[in-house]
Amino acid sequence: MDTIALFGGSFDPPHIGHEAIVKALMNFKEIEKVIIMPTYLNPFKSKFYAPASLRVEWLKEIFKEYKNVEISEYEVLQKRAVSSIESVKHLLESYRKIYLVIGADNLSSLHKWNRYDELKELVTFIVVPRDNIEIPKQFLRLDVDEKVSSTNLRECIDISKLPKKCVKEIYNFYKENSCKTE
Asked: How big, in percent rounded to 5, are the helix, strand and coil portions of the chain?
């Protein structure tokens, strides 16, 4: 396989929107494999809620029956915040072409990403719409119907927005760690 989609993020918590994104990526004929890469710590955040090892465990369970989907522990194993350019360069040792999946909410700060000018030469961005943010024409667009965010789920955990696999574990973790419940 030469062509992958890199879907990184905190996945804190993983939710049905993440599943919808992976399913939509599998319909891109150019993409041979989806690599889901959870962060140890997002470079733009100062903390995480669920430990990285637990988020990896959940993602492996959620996506274990998906064909050509891999959970990469590369960033987690670094035990620090890892920039996208570092992860992309790591993957380019094994793959020829990388599509990098981001949410539209990242577009306004993309220029602040570490070595963005180099990164944009190495990947093709796929942008998932969020919050009615306009996506410029130079980016590929990936439409998904789920309107859910990890931030909102941490504030008010909603069991209906969690993946069927691991639903109880995820719900209980966030409920016990000071999130409100519906």
From this structure: 40, 20, 40
The pTM score is 0.94
The enclosing H or E element of 36 equals: strand 33-38
Q: Is 40 exposed, middle or buried (0-12, 13-18, 19+ CB in 10 A)?
A: buried
d(CA 102, CA 172): 28
Q: Note the pLDDT tens digit of each residue in 150-179.
A: 988 998 899 999 999 999 999 999 988 856
Tokens of 41: 């710590």
CB count, 10 Å around CB of 89? 15
**CA of 117: how far to CAs of 57, 104, 113, 121, 154, in Å?**
33, 18, 9, 7, 33
